[in-house]
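I'm curious: can you give me some protein's one-letter sequence along with its backbone structure tokens because I've never seen that pairing?
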Amino acid sequence: MAPAPGMQQIDLSKLNIGQLAQLKQQVDHDLQVFQESLQALKIAQGKFVDSGETVEKLTPSTKGKTILVPLTSSMYVSGTIADTENVIIDIGTGYYVQKDIDGAKDYFKRKVAFVTEQMEKIQVLGIEKTKVKDAICMMMEMKLQAQAETQKASSS
């Protein structure tokens, strides 16, 4: 099997048990990082979906209605919808843009699609790393059995 881009191929049979254990620890760490990244992306995906749904709810009939506007994740202020044809979107790192409703819907759809694509890439990498981990564990088990048999043979 050819290694994935960015990965190097290692003959596990040439590594000793200590090296295999160290490699397994590194793979476990990589899997943990992938899991944390997936979790962060899932949260971002949820926020983009929620924002898109909120924009969908803006109609001319909502003009003048009172809403709670989030200043932070835990602090809201009362506000009134003054414009139902344009919204201001936080595009990250303190930058905001004004978009019409269709532009905002499109923006959030694109962001959801992008985040979903990134999540799928990380899941594929996670599956590959899990296969590597399984191969390492299998090789460690084989080497431990061979070592036990050698000790058993030498003691008889």
